[in-house]
């Protein structure tokens, strides 16, 4: 009984706070002042250079110092199409059949050392991202293949010329890692930004104690007038979850910007009631159970079908959502997107049926036919609790119900990747996490390795590539959706190249006096703290 | 005596080289490498060209014997290399994290010794009394309890008690402050981890004190002194305690060298930016240079501590010869 | 012939006699033995006494407090905690016993060899032991797990390694005291083989401290598994293991479902406690110098 009441209370507070968060803060005028302490749920990042790194730790530590050309609208961060200008003056319309984008850069922007920021800096930064010179690495090179050149004809204009028109360009341009650096520094020493910070963003660099904390103070010359509201920020590296929860509880920190598991939310809400606000939403991350089709018997589609049929998605998701950071049953596409399958469409795919007993009987039959009854195998997983190990524990139990004996092989990051790349695993718990919601690019994960290097399923399939390209080049939205269904059905149902698990859920718990921040499906965006203010 | 010390120091060289070889080989046996961890850790694309650029930048393509010679040779001249993960000099990485760990280790030792020696002595004097049983039980409980469990519980207890007493939960600041900047704040951060480690440390020391005292108390000369009627207190203080201290000092020294193991777990529990946590990060990141340096540091501390303890032992007890 | 032997006195005692004598003199030790026996019985007969399947998820009964249906409550997956603790005893004791026996045996061999042969063999072995002792267990375990993966076997391997040098050291110093006795040289001159001398004269003398160390090792091994699991390097889900249960439940559910953290922690503490108490009492009983006045 107690659990039900608690659950009700949690549910109520979650709904209420989500509702409150959704309404624009028109009624309240932001208060100025205060230093915000937040936590970064990681150990020290390898470097502070956003161009080179892929980890959210770098971003959480340095985003407040830098500007980008455009970004997702911080007042509407859940959208995947609402882009606003940061350094530009307005969002341009493409010319030349959609192959040329001309941006005008704001006037009067200054780097934190007082020197002016011009289009030359913007262009040079983007050149280093798109076509890095020899010896310089750019982690985003692969996303920008459509860009032919980046030029600045004058001090206020930047021109992007594309090789072909595509709707994937603008979202790629909004990549939160695309900091604008100073041209002179980049040319003199492209590794300078790994250990140093010089940006034009809302906060100026104050101190960095490696592994401990990074701090910033307000930039009084910030070009978005009136912002930031905070006097400064302290970001503390706190890799252990219990420490993060305790710190929020004792008001030693305001929040963390990645996401907390449901148990942490429950504990904080129980202890602090309305002193904390909870924001929840779907997360553009999902775990996939990928069989290695280079290893017998996973090359047999009947075995793969059996693996998918054994898992009860509809019962598992709500149960798991109480203990793990997952929530919504979905197919290949992010559940909030218009391209995503509806529930009716999903139930037609293997493994998404509503009659689990029938599905499991069918699974046993398929295993017997394929001569793989009582199969024993290892599930390779990363050494991360949420939600990887929970997904694995759930899947192993589900598979035991069709007579499979599965053990987990947990590896740290390095050996895990080596296992994936070398194809030495049988079934792996993979993941697909993207910076922004961009379904056309996001679903490329299931494409064969010849086209998408990060695919580890060990299969080649020209038909899959064909279906994908047809969908990518389709301009009519309704037809594109149909083609997406065809692609999804082929990948998940006909071939069972991978098995979906419930999509992640992002839960952000913050002290209630933090205002001005809205949750989004990505823990990579909306991190520069410019709109945040403390109501105390 | 100096010959003995020199001999021991010379003997420690093969130990250090052996440790260096072990960690060198062990780290390179781990599949994958630092570049994969760095680029792939968050699920982004790990393009082959970025991987190759990373390998070249860090120098992972050089032949292994060359890397090993570089490593050993560097150590001989005091050049400990740069961390592969952050590109900063290893010395800087370690130096910035040493103060916290050292402070906890020293505090834990003080706590341990201050509690253990008096309690162990009393326990020995009153063998098999209820006091003895209580002390022994508390000591064994200290050895039997997982230290991280103790740490977690202690944080929770502080939170709950402060909530009950003051109306809002309290915990020390998660932003570390050095001792000279803010002594009270610093102590509040360090005291719980020190007690967590110190409890086990004191338990081990208490048991050793008790057993050493018991042994000494049976010695002939103690019985003679008793027979002569000297006041028991005097006997204990002057003769027994001093002799019993020998094995205790040995133990305290040895356990101090093992503290690094305890620090690894405790620094995770309390989120402290110390050597233990650096060690775990270095191994998980597959940062060869940093891990190698840390292992060498640990082994060196171990060797030096052992040497100091042995010399102290021999110096305190004239009966022991340097054989 | 004045043969100096370490054979026990000829007078035979009945087991009942000896054990009741032990129980009277060492109440704490007896209590420890009882704890150990409880754990052993649980581990051996898990299939018969555990009420539920320890790895069966039950989403209808997640994080339930102790009740008639689940005496110790359920964990976050709805699995019965009592069953998991009972099966966990099996995992703990397997890890504890295998690590300590293998580690102890290797340590015994190396320690005796080191003491008996002396010279450069002793030097080399000493250096190797030093290296292994100085290497922190956690780092060794991290490397072992990174290379070979997690799982019971690899955990045992990782835990065994630091036990070997500790045992070797103690055995070596015990054996050294025998080494100096003149009759060893006499025996060699008389033509007795190395192995005969070692087995008949050196080993019996080190058996007492060795056995006591073994009981301590079992406790340490169980604690080591708990620490490794805390770092995610130990036994993995869904295998029931006390350290793993602590890791999953200790922090996340400490205030909302404390039974998840308390009971496994108690199981570990009581078992290790039992082994330590018993080991202490054993030492007190065996070592003639420690007998009461």
Provide structural commentary.
The complex is a heterotrimer of chains A (about 525), B (about 325) and C (about 290). Chain A is of the alpha+beta class. Chain A has helices at about 1-20, 55-60, 120-130, 170-175, 185-190, 190-195, 240-250, 260-270, 300-310, 315-325, 345, 355-370, 385-400, 415-420, 440, 460-470, 475-495; strands spanning about 35-40, 70, 85, 100-105, 145-155, 155-160, 205-210, 215-220, 230-235, 255, 275-280, 285-290, 325-330, 375-380, 405-410, 425-435, 500, 505-510, 515, 535. In chain A, strands 7-8-9-1-10 form a 5-stranded mixed β-sheet, with helices on one face. Chain A has a 5-stranded mixed β-sheet with strand order 15-14-16-12-17. Chain A has a 3-stranded antiparallel β-sheet with strand order 4-6-5, with helices on one face. In chain A, α7 packs parallel to α8. Chain B is mainly α and about 325 residues long. Chain B is about 80% helix and about 0% strand. By secondary structure, chain C is mainly alpha-helical. Chain C contains 11 helices and no strands. In chain C, α2 packs across α11 and α5 packs across α7 (about 150-180). The model of chain C has no long low-confidence stretch (mean pLDDT about 80). Classes of the chains: A alpha+beta (about 525), B mainly alpha (about 325), C mainly alpha (about 290). Chains A and B meet through β9, α7, α14 and β16 of A and α2, α3, α5, α7 and α10 of B.
């Amino acid at each position: 009984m107690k659990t039900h009441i608690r659950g009700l209370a949690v549910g109520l507070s979650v709904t209420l706070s989500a509702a409150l968060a959704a309404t624009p803060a028109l009624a309240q005028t932001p208060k100025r002042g205060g230093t915000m302490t937040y936590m970064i749920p990681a150990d020290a990042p390898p470097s502070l250079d956003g161009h080179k790194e892929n980890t959210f730790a770098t971003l959480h530590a340095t985003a407040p110092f830098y500007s980008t050309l455009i970004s997702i609208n911080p007042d509407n961060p859940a959208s995947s199409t609402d882009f606003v200008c940061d350094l530009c003056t307005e969002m341009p319309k493409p010319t030349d059949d959609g192959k040329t984008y001309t941006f005008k850069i704001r006037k009067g922007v200054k780097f934190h050392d007082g020197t002016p920021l011009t289009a030359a800096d913007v262009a040079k930064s983007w050149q280093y991202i798109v076509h890095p010179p020899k010896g310089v690495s750019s982690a985003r090179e692969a996303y920008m293949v459509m860009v032919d050149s980046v030029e600045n004809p004058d001090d206020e204009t930047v021109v992007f010329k594309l090789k072909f028109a595509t709707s994937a360009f603008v979202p790629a341009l909004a990549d939160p890692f695309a900091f604008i650096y100073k041209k002179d520094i980049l040319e003199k020493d492209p590794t300078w930004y790994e250990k140093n910070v010089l940006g034009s963003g809302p906060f100026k660099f104050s101190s960095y104690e490696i592994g401990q904390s990074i701090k910033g103070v307000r930039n009084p010359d910030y070009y978005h007038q009136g912002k930031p509201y905070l006097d400064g920020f302290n970001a503390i590296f706190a890799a252990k979850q219990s420490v993060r929860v305790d710190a929020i509880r004792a008001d030693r920190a305001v929040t963390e910007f990645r996401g907390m598991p449901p148990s942490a939310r429950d504990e904080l809400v129980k202890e602090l009631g309305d002193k904390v606000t909870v924001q929840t939403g779907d997360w553009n991350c999902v775990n996939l159970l990928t069989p290695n089709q280079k290893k017998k018997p996973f090359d047999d589609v009947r075995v793969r079908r059996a693996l998918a049929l054994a898992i009860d998605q509809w019962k598992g998701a709500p149960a798991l959502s109480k203990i793990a950071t997952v929530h919504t049953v979905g197919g290949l596409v992010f559940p909030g997107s218009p391209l995503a399958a509806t529930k009716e469409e999903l139930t037609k795919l293997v493994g998404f049926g509503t009659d689990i007993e029938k599905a499991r009987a069918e699974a046993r039959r398929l295993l017997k036919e394929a001569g793989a009854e009582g199969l024993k195998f290892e599930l390779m997983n990363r050494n991360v609790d949420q939600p990887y190990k929970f997904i694995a524990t759930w899947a192993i139990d589900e598979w035991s119900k069709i007579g499979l004996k599965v053990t987990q092989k947990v590896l740290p990051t390095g050996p895990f990747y080596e296992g994936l790349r070398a194809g030495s695993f049988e079934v792996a718990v993979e993941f697909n996490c993207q910076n922004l919601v961009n379904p056309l690019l996001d679903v490329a994960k299931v494409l064969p390795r010849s086209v998408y290097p990060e695919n580890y399923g060990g299969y080649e399939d020209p038909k899959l590539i064909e279906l994908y390209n047809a969908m990518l080049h389709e301009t009519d939205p309704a037809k594109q959706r149909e083609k997406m269904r065809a692609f999804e059905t082929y990948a998940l149902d006909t071939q069972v190249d991978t098995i979906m698990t419930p999509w992640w859920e992002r839960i952000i718990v913050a002290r209630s006096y933090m205002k001005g921040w809205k949750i989004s499906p990505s823990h990579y965006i909306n991190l520069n703290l410019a709109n945040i203010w403390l109501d105390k | 005596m100096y010959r003995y010390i020199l001999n021991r120091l010379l003997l420690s060289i093969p130990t250090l080289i052996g440790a260096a070889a072990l960690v060198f080989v062990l780290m390179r046996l781990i599949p994958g490498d630092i570049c994969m961890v760095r680029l792939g850790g968050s699920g982004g694309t790990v393009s082959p060209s970025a991987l190759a650029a990373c390998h070249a930048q860090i120098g992972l393509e050089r032949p292994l014997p060359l890397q090993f010679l570089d490593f050993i040779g560097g150590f001989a001249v005091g050049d400990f290399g740069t961390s592969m993960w952050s590109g900063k000099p290893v010395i800087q990485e370690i130096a910035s994290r040493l103060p916290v760990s050292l402070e906890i280790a020293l505090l834990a030792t003080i706590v341990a010794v201050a509690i253990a020696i008096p309690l162990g002595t009393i326990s020995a004097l009153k063998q098999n009394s209820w006091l003895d049983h209580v002390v022994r039980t508390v000591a064994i409980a200290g050895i039997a309890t997982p230290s991280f469990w103790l740490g977690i519980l202690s944080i929770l207890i502080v939170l709950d008690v402060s909530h009950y007493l003051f109306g809002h939960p309290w915990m020390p600041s998660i932003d570390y402050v050095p001792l000279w900047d803010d002594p009270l704040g610093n102590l509040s951060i360090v005291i719980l981890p020190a007690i967590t480690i110190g409890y086990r440390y004191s338990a081990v020391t208490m048991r050793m004190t008790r057993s050493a005292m018991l042994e000494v108390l049976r010695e002939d000369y103690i019985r003679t002194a008793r027979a002569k009627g000297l006041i028991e207190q005097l006997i204990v203080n002057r003769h027994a305690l001093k002799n019993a201290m020998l094995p205790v000092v040995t133990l305290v020294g040895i356990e101090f060298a093992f503290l690094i193991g305890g620090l690894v777990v405790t620094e995770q529990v309390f989120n402290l930016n110390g050597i233990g946590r650096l060690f775990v990060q270095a191994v998980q990141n597959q940062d060869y240079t940093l891990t190698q340096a840390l292992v060498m540091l640990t082994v060196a501390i171990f060797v030096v501590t052992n040497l100091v303890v042995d010399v102290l032992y021999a110096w305190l007890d004239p009966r022991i010869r340097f054989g | 012939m004045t043969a100096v032997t370490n054979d026990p006195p000829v007078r035979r005692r009945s087991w009942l006699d000896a054990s009741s004598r032990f129980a009277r003199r060492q109440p704490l030790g007896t209590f420890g033995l009882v704890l150990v026996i409880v754990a052993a019985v649980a581990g051996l007969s898990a299939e018969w006494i555990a009420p539920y399947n320890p790895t069966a998820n039950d989403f209808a009964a997640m994080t339930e407090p102790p009740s008639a249906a689940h005496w110790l409550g359920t964990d976050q997956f709805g699995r019965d905690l009592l069953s998991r603790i009972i099966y966990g005893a099996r995992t703990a004791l397997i890890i504890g016993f295998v690590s300590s026996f293998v580690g102890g045996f290797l340590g015994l061999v190396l320690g005796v060899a080191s003491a008996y042969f002396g010279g450069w063999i002793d030097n080399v072995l000493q250096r190797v032991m030093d290296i292994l002792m100085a290497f922190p267990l956690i780092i060794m375990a991290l490397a072992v797990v990174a290379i070979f993966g997690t799982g019971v076997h690899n955990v045992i391997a990782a835990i065994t390694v630091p036990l070997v040098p500790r045992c070797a050291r103690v055995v070596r110093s015990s054996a050294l005291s025998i080494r100096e006795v003149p009759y060893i040289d006499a025996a060699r001159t008389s033509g007795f083989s190395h192995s005969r001398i070692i087995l008949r004269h050196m080993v019996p003398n080190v058996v007492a401290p060795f056995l006591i160390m073994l009981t301590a090792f079992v406790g340490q091994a169980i604690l080591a598994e708990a620490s490794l699991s805390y770092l995610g390097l130990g036994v993995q889900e869904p295998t029931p293991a006390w350290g793993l249960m602590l890791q999953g439940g200790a922090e996340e559910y400490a205030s909302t479902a404390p039974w998840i953290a308390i009971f496994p922690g108690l199981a570990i503490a009581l078992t290790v406690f039992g082994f330590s108490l018993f080991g202490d009492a054993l030492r007190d009983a065996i070592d003639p110098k420690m007998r009461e006045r």
